[in-house]
Amino acid sequence: MPDTIEDGALVFIFLDAKRNWIRRVKTGEEFHSNKGIIKYDDLIGRPYGIRVRSHSGHEFQIHRPSPADVQIAMGRNTQIIYPKDAATILIQAGIGAGSRVVESGTGSGALTGILSRAVGKEGHVYTYEIREDMYLGAKKNLEKYGLTDNVTMYNKDIIEGIKETDVDAVVLDLATPWLLVDEAHRSLKPSHVLASYSPTIEQVMKTCKALGDSGKWGMIKTLEIFEREIMVRVNKTRPTTWMVAHTGYMTFARSLAVE
Ligand SMILES: C[S@@+](CC[C@H](N)C(=O)[O-])C[C@H]1O[C@@H](n2cnc3c(N)ncnc32)[C@H](O)[C@@H]1O
Predict the structure, then answer these.
(1) Average pLDDT over residues 68-75
(2) CATH code for 10-63?
(3) Which of the residues 23, 104, 109, 224 could staple to 138 if both were Cys, CB 3.0 to 4.6 A apart?
(4) How big is the CA angle at 26 (ends 22 and 28), to the nearest 5 degrees?
């Protein structure tokens, strides 16, 4: 990745935690906000991390957008998987550079974007979405942030079948994951991970029962992750008053070899 801001690159324009934007810089064009105008020509060729002043004197920081910045900025029509849960899925499912991953549903494409960044140029993400409106919305989101090169999107019901075999991970975020335990096993390499994200305990219980009953899965476990931000102020350092109390539960299982 280049260290300097190139014409056509995405930048994260940061004023404060609530006022920040991801934009694509273009020669001759400008960023407009109610805190002033920044000329993209004043950014191109300079390093990420610079501070610049708008024409009205407000200071902005210009950064390279992180995966979390992109995930939060994406337009969404569904509940998305948040960075704390996405990071857990990547680690627990062993998803990294070169991985081939099947995902469903695509939803808003927030997790698809994280998977795309994680697997990189050598890897690939195959994502299945049953609803055409969601499929089109996610496609638009992923195109906007340049996350389509290593992603194949299907507007299909994954229950009809997963085309890919010998994949490194299967990640599910849909209403009925328990219907997919056999199909996910058929698609995965042995001793690789199925990750299933569900917002309710009832879904988790049905999924764990189906995984156990199938006899094809080992090391079944379910996690919930809490994230609490700490407000750091002189003599007032403490957790922030409000936190996101619930996002979802994540169930992980490893595919057993069939000999
Ligand atoms: C909660 S959203 C997924 C959000 C996504 N993980 C994200 O971070 O943006 C669930 C999606 O699964 C899709 N879905 C439900 N059942 C499906 C199926 N059988 N095949 C494919 N997609 C399905 C829904 O249409 C919906 O868009």
Answers:
(1) 86
(2) 3.10.330.20
(3) 109
(4) 130
